[in-house]
Structure to design on (479 residues):
């Protein structure tokens, strides 16, 4: 039995149109608006979902939120979307999947479900009689309206933060170095950073290694803490010790552990404190700023022990004035830099050091005692790391790295010899590299070299002791 036929439906529609016209023509505007609002609420209750549109271009400019959503969905669309696009963005180390038009992806956040869909609409524009077709892409986010506040306050910020994390993970890391002179306003030049050193391969004491890793993890996770206590989100490391003890390898391992870029600052190429400040401002967050051999590049010795002759000071000042007057700087005059200790201190811990965040500053030196105490205090160099001569745990790492050995019959002999001599990890690495992949020969050569070094040191001490005795004997007798 049919309840409605076409004639009944036509009569119902005609009645509806009559009532709509009567309401609009005869009811007061206030009553009409109240009824309209009432019925909209009724329809809203019957349609609980709402949507948010995110267009690719906002007022003809790229929409950052659209790019973030696309990056956020790149890891989620692979399992649900039927058609995907595959690409490798510039300066990215991995492939990226993106949704094709008219695809849908479901997401879950804090217990409720959301649905993303990508749409593409062709728009035609007429410019002076020339018709152009442009693709207008947009994401549509659909969710239950009761979650509107959570989407605005929590979900969309979560999407932006997760997209930033993915972009940071996928980027190609760079090694920067400062230019000797500004080239079209560029202060830094860069190459891809591919150093293979990690905490698994660096030859330092395992306890110290774990201590450094724990300190780095603690530092990167304390953004809110640094803000609360009113300090710049940065940390300073001083690596000191004899040459060949692994300072550069440790820096590379730290950068690889944090997945940070490296800015290798050559202070001898910096002409003034102001240029040093410009270089600092031009660095990015999530980076390691390195100044190697700080005691060799500038005179940063203890000011209480520093003696400068007046004629040498006058000569330097005259050269600086001459250079400034000419307005240029030749390579020969590059040694006359006006970078001072105060400029370096402001670089490390001044007001301009707060431009950017989550940065690690690492200085290295072979002679810590030569540096001014003002540079070494906490807040500038927060952690002092002593990389000394090779000990047995570091030797085990080198044996594993170069010889692929976990143990060897000669390792106990090496363990007894190492405390008696001063041999660096670089010395041991060079011996292992020259063994032509013969592990046994590498261990024998190492024992022989250490024994020779020990014998030479003992002979040196014996000669020194004999020299002291002979000098004592030759002292004239008092009369």
């Amino acid at each position: 039995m049919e309840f409605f036929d076409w004639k009944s439906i036509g009569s119902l529609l005609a009645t509806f149109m009559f009532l709509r016209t009567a309401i609009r023509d005869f009811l007061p505007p206030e009553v009409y608006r109240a009824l309209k609002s009432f019925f909209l609420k009724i329809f809203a209750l019957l349609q609980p979902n709402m949507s948010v549109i995110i267009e690719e271009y906002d007022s003809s400019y790229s929409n950052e939120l659209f790019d973030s959503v696309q990056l956020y969905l790149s890891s989620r669309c692979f399992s649900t979307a039927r058609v995907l696009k595959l690409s490798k963005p510039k300066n990215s180390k991995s492939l990226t999947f993106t949704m094709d038009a008219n695809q849908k992806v479901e997401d879950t956040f804090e217990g409720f479900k959301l649905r993303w869909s990508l749409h593409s609409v062709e728009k035609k524009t007429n410019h002076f009689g020339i018709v152009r077709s442009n693709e207008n892409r947009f994401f549509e986010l659909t969710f239950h309206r009761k979650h509107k506040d959570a989407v605005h306050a929590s979900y969309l910020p979560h999407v932006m933060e997760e997209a930033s994390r993915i972009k940071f993970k996928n980027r190609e890391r760079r090694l920067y170095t400062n230019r000797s002179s500004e080239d079209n306003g560029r202060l830094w030049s860069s190459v891809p950073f591919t150093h293979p050193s990690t905490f698994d391969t660096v030859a330092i004491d395992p306890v110290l290694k774990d201590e450094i890793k724990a300190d780095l993890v603690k530092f990167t996770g304390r953004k809110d803490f640094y803000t609360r206590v009113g300090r710049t989100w940065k940390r300073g490391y001083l690596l000191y010790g004899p040459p060949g003890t692994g300072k550069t390898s440790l820096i590379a391992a730290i950068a690889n552990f944090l997945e940070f870029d490296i800015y290798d600052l050559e202070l001898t190429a910096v002409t003034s404190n102001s240029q040093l400040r410009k270089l600092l401002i031009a660095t990015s967050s999530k980076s390691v700023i390195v100044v190697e051999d700080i005691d060799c590049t500038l005179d940063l010795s203890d000011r209480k022990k520093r003696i400068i002759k007046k004629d040498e000071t006058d000569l330097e000042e005259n050269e600086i004035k001459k250079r400034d007057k000419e307005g240029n700087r030749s390579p020969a005059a590059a040694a006359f830099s006006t970078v001072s200790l105060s400029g370096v201190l402001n670089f490390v811990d001044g007001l301009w050091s707060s431009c950017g965040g989550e940065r690690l500053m690492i200085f290295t030196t072979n002679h810590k005692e030569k540096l001014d105490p003002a540079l070494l205090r906490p807040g500038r160099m927060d952690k002092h790391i002593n990389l000394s001569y090779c000990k047995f745990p570091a030797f085990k790492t080198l044996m594993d790295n170069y010889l692929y050995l976990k143990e060897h019959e000669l390792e106990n002999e090496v363990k007894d010899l190492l405390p008696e001599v001063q041999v660096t990890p670089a010395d041991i690495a060079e011996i292992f590299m020259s063994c032509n992949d013969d592990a046994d020969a590498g261990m024998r050569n190492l024992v022989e070299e250490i024994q020779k070094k020990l014998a030479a040191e003992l002979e040196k001490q014996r000669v020194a002791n004999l020299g002291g005795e002979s000098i004592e004997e030759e002292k004239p007798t008092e009369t």
Q: What stands out?
A: The two ends are 147 Å apart (CA to CA). Residues 26 and 32 are 9 Å apart (CA to CA). Residues 306-317, 320-335, 470-479 have pLDDT under 50 and may be disordered. The chain has 16 helices and 15 strands.
